[in-house]
Amino acid sequence: MVTSPAISPVSPLRQRMQQDMLMRGLGVHTQHDYVRHVRRFAAFLGQSPDVATADDLRRYQLFQHENGVSPSTINGAVSALRFLFEVTLKRRDLSRALVITRYQRQLPDVLSVEEAGRLLQAAPGIKYKAALGVAYGAGLRVSEVAHLKIDDIDSARMLIRVEQGKGRKDRNAMLSPQLLELLRLWWREGKRTGVMLPHGWLFPGRWRTDPISSRQLHRAVQEAAEVAGIRKKVSPHTLRHSFATHLLEQDVDIRVIQVLLGHSKLETTALYTKVSTRTIQAVASPLDRLMALMEDKPPPA
User: Fold this and answer.
1) For the chain, N or C: smaller number of CB within 10 Å?
2) What top-level branch of life does the organism fall under (predicted)?
3) Which residues of the chain are modeled with pLDDT < 50?
4) H or E, element range at 171
5) Burial call 150-185: b when 16+ CB within 10 Å, e when fewer
């Protein structure tokens, strides 16, 4: 007789925390991340987190640093545990024991326009070419691309509706004529092969009732980069970075780019000024001005 494996029951603490996150409108991905971080802390502690002390939190953070855990992961754990202790357990005293790690944010890898073209051409099929075209042509996050529905493409207003993006925010993204044509090619192919449902997902997964997974899009980008001979470390987010950088190099106002990307803070968008080659090239070196003065020539504008 075959018996099904026992399913571990959800603890009352975890259930209460999930309810607290739901009531405060935290996104699904954030909820999963918070639960994962709390589970790791509980495993380190060897018992339920509701009996933790300030010293336990200190030991856990030291353990993370000593074992080379990345600053972003440490800070993610801080956010999760602060929610647990402040909101669910009403223990603000413990929340104050958690320390955020300061670190220098790395500049993102960016493709040149020519590299972006080669990558899209090398995409494995029209479905992935269209999906990666949305990431580059509209600057969407990989999760936003994956969860687009057919009805989100507004060809009359030339907009893409992004529902419940990062931070559970809705916004409009740009829809260029070339991207619309690419999406129409995919739509016709999807209808012909029967993988697209009316009002369903724009990019269905293995089952047409499910959206494509972020993992599938990551795999498609890496496969395309290999075929295109691109040696840079490339992911779907690289296409979003490239979208923003290339717009900046076309002299699009940074505040417009901020809106298109869905950034809450202008400082986040300003990061792209550091990787824009045109921005760097447009600056006249003080050495050029000095040499012009020494040679009694007019300095460069």
Assistant:
1) N
2) Bacteria
3) 1-7, 280, 283
4) strand 171-174
5) bebbeeeeebbbbeebbeeeebbbbbeeebbebbee
pLDDT of residue 298: 59
Known catalytic membership, residue 29:
no
Task: State pLDDT tens for residues 141-181.
Answer: 999 999 999 999 999 999 999 886 565 677 888 888 999 99
What span, in angstroms and rounded, lies between the C-alpha atoms of 288 and 22? 59
Residues 14, 129, 240, 241: which is the catalytic one?
Answer: 240
Q: Write the pLDDT tens digit of every residue in 72-115.
A: 899 999 999 999 999 999 999 888 889 988 866 666 678 888 99
> Using the 8-state DSSP alphabet, how is residue 166 labeled?
G
Which of the following is catalytic: 14, 37, 129, 141? 141
162 has which bridge partners? 171
Active-site annotation holds for 60: no
User: Is 240 a known active-site residue?
Assistant: yes
| 241: annotated active-site residue | no
Q: Please identify which of the residues 59, 166, 208, 218 carries the catalytic annotation.
A: 166
272 is catalytic: yes
Does residue 191 have an active-site annotation? no
**Confidence at residue 283, expressed as pLDDT on a 0 to 100 scale:** 47
* Contact indicator for 78, 209 with CB cutoff of 8 Å: no
- Of the residues 34, 60, 128, 272, which is catalytic? 272
Q: Which of 16, 59, 149, 237 is catalytic?
A: 237
Element housing 174 (H / E): strand 171-174
Q: Do residues 128 and 220 touch, judged by C-beta distance below 8 A?
A: yes
| CA–CA distance, 260 with 138 (Å, rounded to integer) | 8
Query: 120-135 burial, b for 16+ CB within 10 Å, e for fewer?
Result: bebbeebbbbbbbbbb
Domains of the chain, each with CATH number or no CATH: 12-95 (1.10.150.130), 113-280 (1.10.443.10)
